[in-house]
Design a protein that fits this description.
This protein is α/β, with parallel strands linked by helices and 174 residues long. The chain has 1 helix and 19 strands. Strands 1, 3, 5, 7, 8, 10, 11, 13, 14, 16 and 17 form an 11-stranded parallel β-sheet that branches.
């Protein structure tokens, strides 16, 4: 069973039909929408500031979400996919964005709607990634525009797939 830990007067709020893997950790000031999935060895550490997650967000295995005390917060929109081993530290991720495996997104960075951060990229503090842009590298730089409909279609598909995967674990429990 996932560790859901109240801290500093904040109790995590988990939406309807969410999947939390057995060793996922959700601490403190975290509010999560509906149909989200938080995968194995993932940590949502709302101990020093708030983490807000929309609907149908998947945070994949080994990822860490954290903030700066009294400075940065995390806001994640709807239908966002956060790949394996991602670090998001005090950033804003808009609807339909995709953060690739092993990427790092630092404090006060913003990832626009339908944008893609390539695997292994490092998005530096205060970087603004516009809607439907693909960024890659260390530090991450603009690569090209992404067709809005293709980005939305891809992220809706990933979100649906992760909902399906999470249901497999419900079946296992029966």
């Amino acid at each position: 069973m996932a560790i859901i830990k109240p801290l500093r007067g904040f109790t995590p709020v988990i939406g309807k039909d969410c999947f939390l893997a057995d060793n996922a950790v959700v601490i403190g000031d975290v509010i999560m929408g509906d149909e989200c999935s938080i995968w194995f060895s993932t940590v949502l550490r709302g101990d020093v500031n708030s983490i807000r997650i929309g609907n149908r967000v998947n945070v994949q295995d080994g990822s860490v979400l954290h903030t700066l005390y009294q400075k940065s917060t995390i806001e994640i929109g709807d239908d966002v996919s956060i790949g394996h081993n991602v670090v998001i530290h005090g950033a804003k991720i808009r609807d339909y964005a995709l953060i690739g495996m092993g990427a790092v997104v630092m404090d006060d960075a913003e990832v626009g709607e339908g944008a893609i951060v390539a695997a292994g990229s490092v998005v530096l503090s205060r970087t603004k990634i516009g809607p439907h842009e693909l960024w890659a590298g260390t530090p991450a730089k603009f690569v090209k525009m992404v067709e809005p409909e293709k980005a939305k279609e891809m992220n809706e598909k990933i979100a649906r797939n992760y909902l399906m995967y999470s249901k497999w674990y419900d079946e296992q429990a029966e």
